[in-house]
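ARCHIVE CARD
Drawer: 12
Card no.: 0347
Subject: one protein chain, sequence and derived structure
Cross-reference: see card 0346
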Amino acid sequence: MSSGPSIYGLLAEFASAQALVTATRQAHETGYRHMDAFSPFPVEGLAEALGFHKSRMPLLVLIGGILGGVGGYFMQYYTAVIDYPINVGSRPLHSWPAFIPITFEMTILGAALFAVLGMLALNGLPMPYHPVFNVPRFALASRDRFFLCIEATDPQFDREGTRVFLTGLQPREVTEVAD
């Protein structure tokens, strides 16, 4: 990495979604791994071009469902058998068929809560500040422009070499992002 003021990375602006996907693929094939793309709408193939293949969301939802189900069942068992046992008509205190509806509902609730909180955590949300917000033209990312940011933390990042690489991808503009 060359010397100079500290920067977050280099941001390339593209006019179309296809140009962004093509540039991202080329950057990934060149060896860049610490990069992010910004677009005003979901772009098919962009996640694969960035190198995202697997998500931990299914595992988080499964864990949430299991914890919710076990928690719901234990809550009912504790209440009916340990804390406040009431023998009505010689029925068993641990009547598991009566516990199934609440156990099911708690499973769904646990899975849903883990899904929402896991999605927020894995996406790094809420994010009130990001260094790319300092680039004046980045406001167009919510309208009609597409951006690729190669971060300075990438092992292959070199300020001038990466700028030359991004310029070769035919962007509208390449901008340094201050840290």
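Annotation on reverse: The chain is about 45% helix and 15% strand. Residues 66 and 107 are 6 Å apart (CA to CA).
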